[in-house]
């Protein structure tokens, strides 16, 4: 027996370093020996609470939640998530930077709707008179009209409604038929048109291709409300304020510049891209001033924009946008952080289709003396060797600064190595990936593969207005509860990476990191004092 | 423009080797330059048919199939799969070896049921009188009884039935109440108890934990039918015959030796493990002779056994099985290929729990002059850093010859590298993983990560009697249609790996490979002649 025990001791002595070696690339382990006693204690406490909640709130029967488990489908599980202590802890956690969010899907749909209801001149139309039978598919389109075009059409839901004609918003709302729920029914109809519900994601539209149809349709409704100058500026303000309240200290949204103008309050579509940037800059400064005034100046470092357009353009059309982007960068060097092509990668054009203008773009930047890194969406797919999957090769060969989604990156050993070695961070959007059916729950998400391979990762929310994952607390929650290996120190490393791989300049990064570390220490204290 | 085109040419010239490098570890690429013209043509043809079927049969509306797509949930998609040309092609393909299948779940449930109906002396019992309300959960248990214990209880479904009392099989069947479907209803009830249906996998039991409960329950019903000497030998025969018909030339099933005896035709539970092996050996030889007689001798190389017991034993109990395994290996050196611990990894004991007896097992083998490699199940889990996930470390440190499932292996860079370098093949069971809810469809299976990392892989069916994926054609189908990168050459490499990493000796492997290559060439011819 003595010799057996020696054999076991020898085995265990070899086992520990083997496991350690396998985990040695994880970015939190680079500074593992620097972890404070408090961080270690808080980490252990959070693991205990997580285990406890997995056995209690996630094991109980819940009405309307057939199979509850930690990391489950977000739209169904949200009502359980918000009951947990772990979610309370995530809400308090400082998050660093938000690096992947589409501006026009960052603000709660109800908030946008309130803004719209206060804005004069907005009209609405549908493709056929609204009825109970077509309510789910007959989506509202909004437009602010100049006074010369204002109408007095009384209702969208009357059978006499002429399809496609513009009805004043308040007429449509006030006269919405009682069978469809009256005013409240109208509000619900509009909000549903701008969000994805569980029945859609997990039932009627339960494939990547189908849910993308629903996803895209939400923008048809919201764009007519957001692309109005006075609403747009309030929308940005709310995005910044709500991000700050969730512990985010810097944001780098993608703005879609496809439309060359937005509407003014007068209903004229003549507000140009440079005016959008002036507006953005003004609101950022106002929110900064507001935070200073509250004595919370350090909590908001700022915001930059990733210039985006859609990957259905022709290469010739794209040229216009590339020149537009260069011109804006020259006028607003602090605001333009990078360039991206967005839209459904699987249905639209791959990067290689645009190789000529994209290579020219780099040349033109040299000529103009500007630096606008690519920050490409790539590999947001279940495909293996498809054009969408292969966008990863082109994103990296074109020198992308980060990769948006990179869902299929883990399939590519050379690319994983390249990302680790060159410091190309992946903008991982856990809840977005799940609702868009790339993964059935957080348990099957490839994030652990990236983390164990030492690829830098920033967690991101993508389109929280559509998905309901406002801020970053929900995304951090899903990541934390879906892995035993992941702890508070992992989340801290993710937040630090979001700062390190942002487009802030070195001075801004230092400021941001200093704020983050102070907030992080406060956070650990509060976890230990409130949840022990 | 001229310089732009040069820039594009330079880009493309750098792109091709970059992609090639990323794919260079794929095992089919080791011999890519040896591919015959026929293989290249057949590969291209299969890709065209696959693309065509993705756009036709997989795009059509199918009654009862809500969201058809290639690689979808197997139990729902099977009715579409069998309509495709790709499935016809897969059925013709030579498969090499089957390296991961639990013997008592390898034969079609209907076939087993037919055997049982012909066997005198079998009785059946349930925990409460059968009714429409409890039919799905009140599972039948079977036992062959010695004539002294035979009963004449008339029915299972009569309210006068005493729970737990044994009813002669034919009484139970003939008297099955007409409200429950009579004889046919009884057959359906028994078959349903031994298989998983789509509503269970994708509805009522749609989590790993829940579907495992159903999965385990199927063995409660089937074990009482299989563990009867005359049925067991016919069961083995059918397993071998149906494998051969599917193009499998060698099998290496896991046999569960937990029960120390099985029943004889006389209803005595006294057939010992060594008698099981004698029976197995006899049937293998009979099937070989049968194949020789048909002039198809080369199509069946043979079979070996992986000795398995269940991971709920105590370490002290395990000792008995390890010694039993050694004794059997000494008596039947050609039959015992390895040792494994089976059962739900997440609910039962991790390998580390058995470290003392497992290390002692290695010592005892040296003393006895035998070599019984471990061939462990490990990492059949969605966990990240859980005990089940960590079984992978112990499997590898203990020198496992292959890894059963290894579903979570892709999370571990060091282990992936070790498997590639040391030639530890992974027994990947695509359909099993999907039905047991580790992946929602083949599109989210980690197999492409293993392939691109050069890890040797053998495709396996695991428990086809329960899942309905008889043979390997269905598993190969799911793999082929879920990836654009995967082609016939990939499948050929998988089949060759199944031979190379089997427990055949070198002489057997050479014979098997020679047969395989001949069959492969015939297969390519038939693809080109029948499907072009």
Automatic annotation (TrEMBL), chains A, B:
Q: What is its main location?
A: secreted
Q: Enzyme class, one word? A: hydrolase
Source species, domain of life: Eukaryota
Print the keywords alphabetically: Hydrolase, Metal-binding, Secreted, Signal
The EC number(s) attached to this protein equal 3.5.4.4
Q: Which cofactor does it need?
A: Zn(2+)
Looking up Pfam families in the UniProt record yields: A_deaminase (PF00962)
Cell location: Secreted
Q: Please, one GO biological process term?
A: inosine biosynthetic process
Looking up InterPro entries in the UniProt record yields: A_deaminase_dom (IPR001365), ADGF (IPR006331), Ado/ade_deaminase (IPR006330), Metal_Hydrolase (IPR032466)
Q: Which ranges carry the Adenosine deaminase domain?
A: 207-511
Q: Name one GO cellular component term.
A: extracellular space
Q: What protein family does this chain belong to?
A: Belongs to the metallo-dependent hydrolases superfamily. Adenosine and AMP deaminases family. ADGF subfamily.
Protein name per Swiss-Prot or TrEMBL: adenosine deaminase
Please report the organism this UniProt entry assigns to the protein.
Psilocybe cf. subviscida
Read off the lineage from the record. Eukaryota, Fungi, Dikarya, Basidiomycota, Agaricomycotina
């Amino acid at each position: 027996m003595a010799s057996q025990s020696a054999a076991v001791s020898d085995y265990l002595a070899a086992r520990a370093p083997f496991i350690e070696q396998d985990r040695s690339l994880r970015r939190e382990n680079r500074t593992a020996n620097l972890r404070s006693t408090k961080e270690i204690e808080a980490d252990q406490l959070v693991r205990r609470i997580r285990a406890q909640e997995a056995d209690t709130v996630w094991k109980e029967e819940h009405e309307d939640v057939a199979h509850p488990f930690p990391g489950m489908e977000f739209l169904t599980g949200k009502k359980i998530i918000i009951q947990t202590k772990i979610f309370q802890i995530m809400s308090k956690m400082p998050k660093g930077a938000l690096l992947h969010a589409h501006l026009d899907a960052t603000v709660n749909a109800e908030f946008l709707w309130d803004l719209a209801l206060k804005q004069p001149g907005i009209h609405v139309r549908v493709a056929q008179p609204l009825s109970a039978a077509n309510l789910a598919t007959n989506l509202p389109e909004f437009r602010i009209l100049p006074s010369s075009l204002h109408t007095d059409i009384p209702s969208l839901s009357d059978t006499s409604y002429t399809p496609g004609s513009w009805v004043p918003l308040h007429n449509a709302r006030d006269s919405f038929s009682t069978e469809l729920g009256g005013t409240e029914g109208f509000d619900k109809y509009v909000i549903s048109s701008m969000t994805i519900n569980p029945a859609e994601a997990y039932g009627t539209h339960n494939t990547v291709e189908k849910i993308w149809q629903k996803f895209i349709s939400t923008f048809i409704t919201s764009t007519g409300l957001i692309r109005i100058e006075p609403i747009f500026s309030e929308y940005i303000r709310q995005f910044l304020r709500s991000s700050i309240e969730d512990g985010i200290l810097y944001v780098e949204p993608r703005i879609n510049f496809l439309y060359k103008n937005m509407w003014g309050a007068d209903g004229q579509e003549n507000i140009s891209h440079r005016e959008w940037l002036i507006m953005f800059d003004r609101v950022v400064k106002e929110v900064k001033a507001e935070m200073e005034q509250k004595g919370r100046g350090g909590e908001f470092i700022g915001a930059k924009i990733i210039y985006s357009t859609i990957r259905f353009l022709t290469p010739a059309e794209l040229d216009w946008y590339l020149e537009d982007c260069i011109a804006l960068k020259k006028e607003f060097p602090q605001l333009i952080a990078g360039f991206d092509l967005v839209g459904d990668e699987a249905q639209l054009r791959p990067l290689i289709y645009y190789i000529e203008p994209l290579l020219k773009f780099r040349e033109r930047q040299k000529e103009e003396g500007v630096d606008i890194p690519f920050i490409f969406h790539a590999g947001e797919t279940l495909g293996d060797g498809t054009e969408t999957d292969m966008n990863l090769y082109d994103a990296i060969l074109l020198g992308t600064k980060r990769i948006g989604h990179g869902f299929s990156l883990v399939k590519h050993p050379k690319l994983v190595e390249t990302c680790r070695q060159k410091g190309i961070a992946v903008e991982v959007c856990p809840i977005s990936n799940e609702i868009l059916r790339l993964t059935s729950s957080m348990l099957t998400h490839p994030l652990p593969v990236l983390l164990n391979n030492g690829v830098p990762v920033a967690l991101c929310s993508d389109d929280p207005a559509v998905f309901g994952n406002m801020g970053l607390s929900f995304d951090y929650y899903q990541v934390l509860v879906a892995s035993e290996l992941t702890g508070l120190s992992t989340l801290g490393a993710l937040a630090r990476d979001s700062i390190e791989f942002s487009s802030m300049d070195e001075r801004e990064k230092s400021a941001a990191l200093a704020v983050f570390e102070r907030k992080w220490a406060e956070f650990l204290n509060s976890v230990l004092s409130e949840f022990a």
